[in-house]
Amino acid sequence: MLDTASPWTPLSSTSRRVALEVLLHGPLARTELARRLDLSTPSLTRITKPLLDAGVLREVHEPAPRGGGRPLQPLDIDADLQQFVGIKLTGFRAYGVLTNLRADILATGTREITAQDPQSVVEVLDALVSDLSGRSAPAAVGVGLGGAVRDFTLVQRAPFLHWHGVDLGLLLAERTRLPVAIANDLDALMEAEHWFGDGRDVHSFAALTIGAGVGGGLVIHDRLVTGPDSGIGLLGHFPLDPLGPSCPEGHRGCADAMLSTEAIHTQAAMVLGRAVTYDEVLDLAAAGDPLADQIVGRSAHAFGTLIAAVANIAQPERILLTGEGIRLAHVAGHRLRAGIAQARQPEASPLDLRILDDDPTLWARGAAAVAIQRTVLSDLPRH
User: Fold this and answer.
1) φ, ψ at 180 (rounded to 5°)
2) Which of helix, strand or coil describes residue 251?
C-alpha cells in the first residue's frame, strides 16, 4: 500500500534529489547545496521553492554575519514532517521505536511474542504500532528480523520464528492499513548507519555483529551489498582457527564456533565444570580467572582475525562492531587488536574501528530507517 498523500510522492526526481541531500547532510547553505548537486543558483531556487511551499524544506534563521550582509538562511528538512515506527522482531519479543524523519527516537515500546504463528505475531506488531503511534498514524512501519527477506515484504526464512515463505509485509499492511517495509535486521542496521549514523560521512563501510550468531554487512560506493544468499548467515562459517571447536554444522574453528555467545559460555562451562552465562565468563576473565581468560582471549583473537579478513578483502573506510556479544571487544580489546595485527600486512592503513554498544532500540531504529528510505524514495512495496 503506497501512501499517495505522502509529500514525497509527487516530487520529481530532481526535487527528490535536492530534498534527499538536505535530509542526509543538512542544514546546507544554498551555495553549498548547489555545488554538491552541480546546479546553478537559479535552477536551485526554482527547485526548492515548491519544496519550501510544501513544508518539506524550511529555512534555518541564523544571525547576520559579522561585518554585515544578509544571513545565509541555510535549508534544512523538516524532521517533524512525518513519523515512522521501527520494530526489531525476535522469537520472543518485539522492540519498537517511534522516530522522526531523521530516525531520531521519540518513543520506545516492547511487546512479548507468546505465539510464533504469523497471524499471532501480526496481532502483536499491530498492538505495538498502536502503542507507539498515539492519535496520529505514522507515515510507514519498518520491521527488521533475523533471516532472509525479499522485496521488502516476503520473509523467505526466519529461523528464530520457524518461518518459511511468510508475506509479513502484506499481512501487517492489511492489519494496520499502513505502508510496511520488511528487512533483514542487519541490512536495516546498515541502512540506518549509512543514512543517519556512523557511516554517513564515508562511501564504504562494513559492520560485524556477534551474539547468537555472527553477521556481516557491507556498503560499497554508497550502496548496500546484497545478493541471493543475504540473510542466511554465511559469515558465521568463515574459518578462523583450524584447532578451534566445531559448530553444529561440523565446521571446525568457524566464526560461529569461536564467537557466538552460546559457543563461548558452553566452552567455559566445560572447562570450569559448572554452568555460566556469557556475561559471567567475561566477568571472570576481566577479574583474572586464568581459564576464563584463555577462552575469552582466544575468541577475541579470532574476532580480530575476522575483522582483518574483512578489511583485507573489502578495504572499507570504516568497520562498525556491534551485537549483543560485543562486550567481548571491551573486555579483551588487546587480544582483538593482536588478532588484527597478526592477520594484516604491516604496511596496511590503520583501521577505523567503531564499537556500537548493543541495544534493541539500535536495531528497531534500523527498521525505521528502512521505512524512511522507502518512503523518501517512493519505493514502498505495493500491498
Assistant:
1) -135, 140
2) coil
Sign of the Cα pseudo-torsion (18, 19, 25, 31, in order): positive
**Inter-residue contact 380 to 12 (CB < 8 Å):** no
Contact yes or no for 317/202 (Cβ under 8 A): yes
Which residues does 202 contact at the CB level (< 8 Å), separation at least 6?
Answer: 316, 317, 318
Nearest to 320 by CA among 198, 150, 203: 198
Q: Which of 92-96, 160-164, 232-236, 294-298 has the lowest mean pLDDT?
A: 232-236
- Reduced to 3 states, what is the DSSP secondary structure of residue 32? helix
Cell of 76: 534544512
Give counts: helices (H), strands (E), the chain: 13, 15
Nearest in space to 113 (alpha carbons), one of 101, 125, 104, 102: 125
Residue 50 CA to its chain's centroid (Å): 32
Pair type for strands 148-150 and 140-145:
unpaired
Asked if 112 and 56 touch (Cβ cutoff 8 Å), the reply is: no
Note the pLDDT tens digit of each residue in 26-76: 899 999 999 999 999 899 999 999 899 888 999 987 665 565 555 568 999
- 328 contacts 306 by C-beta, under 8 angstroms: no
Distances (CA, A) of 144 to 13, 196, 334: 28, 17, 33
Cβ density class 194-211: b for 16+ within 10 Å, e for less: bbbbbbeeeebbbbbbbb
CA-based torsion, 45, 48, 54, 58: positive or negative: negative
Distance of CA 215 to the CA centre of its chain: 12
Whole-angstrom distance, CA of residue 171 vs CA of residue 163: 14
> Is the bond leading into 7 cis (omega within 30 degrees of zero)?
no
Contact 358, 326 (CB under 8 A): yes
- Contacts of 150-159 with CB under 8 Å at 24 or more apart are 151/381, 152/181, 152/182, 152/183, 152/370, 152/374, 152/380, 152/381, 153/180, 153/181, 153/182, 153/381, 153/383, 154/182, 155/182, 156/231, 157/231, 157/232
Distances (CA, A) of 155 to 50, 144, 151, 322: 39, 10, 9, 24
Cα distance between residue 362 and residue 367, in whole Å: 9
Work out the pLDDT band at 2, boundaries 50, 70, 90: very low
